[in-house]
Structures are given as structure tokens and as C-alpha cells.
Amino acid sequence: MNLITSFILYVMLAPVATGGYEIGDTVSDFKLMNVNDKMVSMSDYTDTEGLIIVFTSNYCKCSRAWEGRIMELDKKFRPLGYPVIAINPNSPEIVSADSFEKMQIRAKEMNYTFAYLSNETGDVAKTFGATKTPTAFVLHKVNNEYKLAYKGAIDDNMDEPDSVQYKYVEMAVEALKKGELPNPNSVKGMGCSIVFPYKGKVD
Question: pTM of the predicted model, to two decimals?
């Protein structure tokens, strides 16, 4: 087994940080401010089969590396009933690049087609169990409740999109569309530690 294969297996099998929602859990609704100055909650998405929740940020270089792929996820899966909701969990008092005003600028510059929500207290990120940006959570709707089906990395290659071998979020959504369970359903991801208020960076 070569080094690259060993690394891929490690990433696939390594557990995601404990805490927050586990696979199969019902995800509670939230209400956060979107960059268009309107409040958004999961309950606003009435005609969906599921949601792709991504905790991301302006500041994090890892988030920027995956930004285009997050946009592509929304473009591909919104018409299929799985839109993206992006949430910025960093404290703007500590990370000025993640202020609401700069979120609005970024969303406009990049022409985001999805909601980009501010979670200045980090409470929603903590409820989900997110500790890094970007981290993705794929939810599917069961009896009008959202259940967690996948959590972790977006794919397996931050720096080289053309060299990606495992598109974990895409794989998860495509499995759910077929009536199957995602495999893997959790993957340890790379990213920047979320900067929560008062406590600073979380590893």
C-alpha cells in the first residue's frame, strides 16, 4: 500500500470530532441573518428533499480553496432538491474579515446563489458540532424533519480540484437520491479552526 493510498484510507476512516449531531439525528431549526438582510431558517425551504449546510468563512484560506466547489454544489443539487446554506460561524469581533458587511461584499463579488448566514455567537456551529471551516453537513428530509446523513469534508483534495478522487458531499447526495445511505457517512476534514467568541480558536 503506497503513501497516497494510506492517506486516502486514513481520511476516509478517521472519525469526525465528537460532539454535536450524530448520523441519523434530527436537526433542530435555526434562524440567522442572511447577507440580503433577511432572516433565514431551514423551515423556509419547504420544497426540498434535503439541505447541504456548509460552515465556511471569508477569512479561512481553506474555505476560499473550496469556495468554487461549494458554489458548484448549489448549482448542481439545488435543482434536485438539495440547496446549499452557507453559515459563517466566526466571531467578527476577533476576525474582522468575517464581519457581516464583508460577508455581504464577498457574496456579491462571487455572485453566491445560496444563502450566506451570519452566526456571530457560533451557537449553531456548536450545536452541529462543527469546529473547522469548511465543514459540510448533508441533511435529508424524513416526515418533514431534517435528519443528518453525512458530515465532514467536502472532498479529498483542498489544493487540486482536478485531482479529487472522492467527492464526499456529492456522493452523499447522490446516494440519498437513490434511496441509499451515504458511504462513508462521516469524514475527517481539513480546515481552519472556528473562532468562537471569548474562547478564541478551537482546535
Answer: 0.88
